[in-house]
Amino acid sequence: MYGGFNGMQDLNVQKANQACVSCRKQKRKCSKTLPACALCERMNRHCDYSDATPPPTAEDFNALRMKLMELESRLNGGNGIITSQTNFSTPSGGTLSGSEPLGPPIPGYTPQHESPWQGVQSRFPAIAFLDSHEFKYGGYVQNTMIAVPKPSIEIPVDVLELLGDGPSIQALLNDYFTTIHKWMPIVSQKRLTRNMASPLWEAGPDLALLLLSMKLITSRPQDGIESSHNPAYVSAKGFLALMEATGTVSLIILQAGLLITWFEYGQAIYPAAWMSAGWCVRYGNLLGINNHSEATQLIGHASTWVEQEERRRTWWGVLVTDRIVSIGSQGHILTTQEPKEDSPLPVNDDAWDDGEMSSAMYKLVSSPIDEPAGPFPRLCQASIMMGKVLKHLYGEETASENARFAASQLYLDISILSRKILEEATTSGNYLSLSSPLALTFSTLFTLCKVYSRLKASDAAPSGSPSAESLAMQAQAVDGLKTVSRSVVDFVEQINAATSSPPARDRVSPIIMDALYKAANNYAWLVRESGDEASQMALESIRHCLRRLGARWRNAAEYLRILEAQEFTYAVGSAGS
């Protein structure tokens, strides 16, 4: 049983003589089926076929106002002014009214489609932001003097139509948990399945948004259609904005927002992906799941281990998402959200999926790298390394001797993590499961080495020439770029072998594309500099992989397009020199 989403109807049921009260009030088409119409059954609400006329609501008054505007527009002839019956010719061949307008122009009326925004109000307590200390410690939370409301809004019809019936939703869940969940496991499959199977559990609009986001991120791009025009994407963005406007506070909404952000990142929808990643950080802070001691737990305290772990994984998902979306922009915003040494990492993935607390292995951020860990904890560790590199590059003077020593130590630490992940990926026999954290370590090494591979004016010695230390650091950085690039070529071969079939490509994460692009970019530079044939072959191998994966994630196709544009620019420049 799937709450309000089964949508299944019996064609032989009896029908009422009139529409139900809810459909009449909302002016929607009613199926009139007994004992409940199709819409009420989907919404899991009481269906009333009585003759009683419901009292007028804000929506009724709004509809009356719209009808008045329509009447005024018709009286005005639809052209914005009230005119007389007599018109005079003008020199330009037009007509001029025989009377002056009676008032300011009124725009012509355009019939409005039914909107779920009508009557939407937010009663979220402003004190939670204007004075959070008073909200948390002044008795408001404890004594519920000011409670965070749970807005009751109806699920938009387009969302219900996109989700379909019970079997469709079950197929969607199976697809999601065998693909996306493998590299971004933030939703508890065990808890969600158990809740949806319970006849006493009521599915709310936040769950509908999550299911729609799952449908969105599992969808493949369609030729000739922009991903931003995907009906599921348009509905999901509008539904998320509606939930935000009502002040809804829910962990499920944050999970849906993360999946929407990953869809935008994977399908190269910008600047939406950049803005959505920031929204997830803010919303996670709003919920109070960011491990901050002063954070107000607006969603209450977790009652079970599974719930606590789901919150922890969701917040790690927020940090990882914000980090990865920022990799190529060169505009990462340093925050105080970085995890501390004593922050717990997500538990091993198998225990999480099985809901077995007894088999969970707890690790901290400071835990040694050589201890075994699952794919998602490894992704979090790789993200921490990227955070250290970004802090080093943006927060320190890279030309100083201490900074160069720190960079060398960072390169060593990241390389150790990369080799450990590669070892686990090779021995596990499931390379794809660890491809995301492995690729992120490659991206991190590229980001670090690229800065030191180029000499700056500040690297010059008093004589004006580059200092010996700067030249040595540059040589190490260039050698590091070549080493990582060779590792990416081996990585590409493993990815190609593991994705020989289209279903297998659905398990590939869009996270890996940045590392592929950076390696290809480095090989393209080597080809231009020396015409090296081995570099040309490596470049073609990476481009072939990007071309194959571009059918699933369009950010791969965008990276490939950038590479081709660079090659074209170089060819034109060489021909003109």
TrEMBL record:
Keywords: Metal-binding, Nucleus, Transcription, Transcription regulation. GO terms for cellular component: nucleus. One of its GO terms (molecular function) is DNA-binding transcription factor activity, RNA polymerase II-specific. Pfam families: Fungal_trans (PF04082), Zn_clus (PF00172). The keyword Transferase does not apply. SUPFAM superfamilies: Zn2/Cys6 DNA-binding domain. GO terms for biological process: DNA-templated transcription. Gene3D superfamilies: Zn(2)-C6 fungal-type DNA-binding domain. It is found in: Nucleus. Residues 19-49 form the Zn(2)-C6 fungal-type domain. This is Zn(2)-C6 fungal-type domain-containing protein. It comes from Amorphotheca resinae ATCC 22711. The lineage of its organism: Eukaryota, Fungi, Dikarya, Ascomycota, Pezizomycotina.
